[in-house]
Here is the input.
Amino acid sequence: AVNKPTEPEIFYNRAQAQQQLKNYPAALADIEKAIQLNLKKPKSDIQLSLGITYAGLNRHQEAIAAFDVAL
Here is the structure.
């Protein structure tokens, strides 16, 4: 039996795949879950991913804020 993923990197990696597929709602859900599970990635990487996802969702103010943090 396959367990449900609980490792934050799994959610982060899946979010990256969802971004490539332009499935931004699913990408956002996965990034948020990864953050909730205490993802161990540089903050700039997480914020960059959030910014890309927000931009894909036409949530431009949130995208700019995330990109600012990533810098």
